[in-house]
Amino acid sequence: MPKPDQSDKKLIPFIPDGEFYFTKGVEAYQKQKFELSLKWFAKALSEKPDHPLYQCQMSIVYTEIGSYYKANQLLTKVLTKYGDEYIDCYYLISNNYAHLGLLQDAVKYAELYLEKAPEGEFAEEAVGLLSVLDFEEDEEEDDDWALEEEDDVLIYQETVFYHLEREEWQEAIALLEEMITLFPEFSQARHEYHYALFFAGERTEAIELEEKYVLEHPETLTSYMNLAIFYYYTNNQEKFDHMLTMLQNIFPIHEQQKLRLATTFTQIGLYEEALNRFKLLHKSKLKGHPSYYRWFSTCYYFTGNEEKAESVWSEGCKEHHILAKQSRPWKRDNLI
């Protein structure tokens, strides 16, 4: 039989563009396949690097997995270029700062959002966030803080976070010293500096600096967590007991602070307490933290559930190559 004439049929090649990649990213996000979603959004941005919607959506995925610094870097870029065309960025940035425990910055951006969009899509959420933060009205705010300068802080934070998670103390110390000089009002850098100093061997100096800070700022939770760890490792039982009593009665609202408190209880050997705190965390928001898997698995091991400890550790190794290169934390001479 004669074959049908196909001379008039043409193949139309399909060439994916940014919109195609973006759509695939949204689909993956809706299915909670966050890592896949990020890959699609990265492809979309490779086609259109400055597309504000692509950057905003990618930032939302970063928020979901707990990479709040990366999320804010993208949102800050959008605000720098497009300004008030994307007002929702102010609320999203505020929400990320709240998760990081940077309350002053969270309040600032929530108020900016309400000022610019009092009837906006996130107005109710912004009011609720401000209510929860309950920030002191007389707290001074630096209204001249430039977006470009905030971007620099975020870059420093992300790099410091990288070294701290890998226990690269000297590298972290060098960067934190720069941060303290360049951004003296950024208090979190001081706490991370004291922590890195302690585990780099400068224990006396670290304790003295943190004790001085907490005398001047008695409301700072990070100071109490640091000091509990410092006193535990230096066998200062009286001061340790005092810090422990305080911490056991604190239940932070922000995921970042919840994680830090859970890891603190693990580091000081309160594994049952730590395990209970870990179970309250939202894993989807903390997958970007190797410490989540390191300390959570440790809790399971020392509370007698070795099978679960191995499971959590294996999952962490798949998420973070740095863990795969390390021995299991409960097999180390020192947990730190």
Helix and strand element order: HHHHHHHHHHHHHHHHHH
Number of helices: 18
Q: Give the termini separation.
A: 79 Å
- Helix/strand-derived category reads mainly alpha
Q: Could you say what the CATH architecture of the largest domain is?
A: Alpha Horseshoe
| Chain oligomer state | single chain
Helix content: 55-70%
CATH fourth-tier homologous superfamily of the largest domain: Tetratricopeptide repeat domain
TPR repeats: 18-51
Keywords: Repeat, TPR repeat
Characterise the protein shown here.
- Keywords: Repeat, TPR repeat.
- The chain has 336 residues and is mainly alpha-helical.
- It folds into three domains: 116 residues, Serine Threonine Protein Phosphatase 5, Tetratricopeptide repeat (Alpha Horseshoe), CATH 1.25.40.10; 106 residues, Tetratricopeptide repeat domain (Serine Threonine Protein Phosphatase 5, Tetratricopeptide repeat); 82 residues, Serine Threonine Protein Phosphatase 5, Tetratricopeptide repeat (Alpha Horseshoe).
- Helices cover 68% and strands 0% of the residues.
- The chain contains 18 helices and no strands.
- Helix 3 packs antiparallel against helix 4 and helix 5 runs parallel beside helix 7.
